[in-house]
Write a structure and sequence with these properties.
Blueprint lengths: L1 H60 L5 H5 L9 H4 L4 H37 L1 H5 L10 E4 L2 E4 L6 E4 L2 E4 L5 E3 L4 E9 L3 E9 L2 E11 L6 E2 L4 E5 L9 E8 L2 E3 L8
Antiparallel strand pairs: 1-4, 2-3, 4-11, 5-10, 6-7, 6-9, 7-8, 8-10, 8-11, 11-12
Helix pairs in contact: 1-4
C-alpha cells in the first residue's frame, strides 16, 4: 500500500512537472509566434514599398506595368501541417496562416526580382533618359497645393492648378530636378522670376516665384544643382516654389516622376 501511494505521488509529481514544462514551452512558443508575425508584417510592408516604387518607375518610363508585382502572386502554398500537428489548436492555426503567408511572400519576391532585373537592364540601356527624368523634389518645404482643380486664390470659383506649390522660407535653395539646359531665366507675368530647364525627350521643368537666379540661359545643369532661391515674386500669396513638369507641351502632375 505504501509503495502504491509512493508511486502515485511520484507519478503526480512527474505529471505536474511535465505540465509545467509544457506550459512554459507553450508560452515561449506563443511569444515566438507573435514575434514572427510582427517580423513578417514588416517584411510585407517593405515589399509593398518596393512594389509601389517599381510601379511608379514603370509608369514614368513607359514600361509595361507588371500586375503580379502589385497584387501578389499565386502558386503552391505550404500549410505548415507537419509542425502544426505538434501544437495546440490555436497555435497550429496560426502556424498554418504564417506558413501560407510566407509562401505567398516568397512567390512575390521571385516575381519582384525578375521585374527589378528588367528595370536594371532598361536603365543600363537608357542612361541618358534616366538622367533627364525629373525624379527629385526641387526644394525642401511643405506642399501646400497639389496639381489639379482647386479654389482660386485670386478670383471666385475654382481653377486648374498646373503644378505643385512648395512653401519654404525666402532664400531656400531650388535645385534642378534632372540634367538639362537652362532655356529661360527671367520675369514672366503671373510667375514672377521663372527658371525653365529643358531636359530633352520633350520634358521641361519650370520653377516660379523665385527671389533670385543662380543660372543663365544656355547653361548646362545637373540633377540637384542649385538654380535659384525661393521667393514670392509675381502672383504669389507668400514665399513658395511653384513647380511644373511639361511633357511635349502638356503640363502633367510632377508627382508622377518624383521617386524620393
Amino acid at each position: 500500500m505504501f509503495l502504491v501511494c509512493g508511486l502515485n505521488s511520484l507519478r503526480n509529481l512527474w505529471t505536474a512537472s511535465m505540465l509545467a514544462k509544457v506550459q512554459t514551452e507553450n508560452e515561449d512558443l506563443k511569444v515566438q509566434l507573435r514575434t514572427l508575425t510582427q517580423q513578417m508584417s514588416t517584411v510585407q510592408n517593405q515589399l509593398n514599398r518596393v512594389s509601389e516604387l517599381d510601379h511608379k518607375i514603370r509608369l514614368a518610363t513607359g514600361l509595361e506595368v507588371d500586375q503580379n508585382s502589385l497584387m501578389g502572386a499565386g502558386g503552391p502554398e505550404s500549410d505548415g501541417s507537419s509542425m502544426s500537428l505538434l501544437l495546440p489548436p490555436d497555435e497550429a492555426s496560426q502556424v498554418r496562416k504564417i506558413a501560407s503567408k510566407l509562401s505567398q511572400i516568397d512567390a512575390v519576391l521571385d516575381n519582384q526580382e525578375l521585374s527589378l532585373e528588367e528595370l536594371d537592364s532598361y536603365f543600363a540601356d537608357n542612361e541618358s533618359l534616366i538622367s533627364a527624368t525629373p525624379t527629385i523634389w526641387p526644394c525642401r518645404g511643405l506642399v501646400t497645393s497639389e496639381y489639379g482643380v482647386r479654389a482660386s486664390l485670386f478670383h471666385p470659383g475654382t481653377t486648374f492648378h498646373e503644378g505643385i506649390d512648395i512653401a519654404a522660407p525666402p532664400g531656400t535653395l531650388i535645385r534642378a530636378a534632372a540634367d538639362g539646359v537652362i532655356t529661360f531665366a527671367g520675369w514672366q507675368a503671373g510667375y514672377g522670376n521663372l527658371v525653365a530647364v529643358s531636359h530633352g525627350y520633350g520634358v521641361v521643368t519650370r520653377y516660379a516665384h523665385c527671389s533670385g537666379f543662380m543660372v543663365s540661359p544656355g547653361q548646362l545643369v545637373k540633377r540637384g544643382q542649385v538654380i535659384a532661391t525661393v521667393g514670392s515674386t509675381g502672383q504669389a500669396t507668400g514665399p513658395h516654389l511653384h513647380y511644373e513638369v511639361v511633357v511635349r507641351g502638356i503640363k502633367v502632375n510632377p508627382r508622377r516622376y518624383i521617386f524620393e
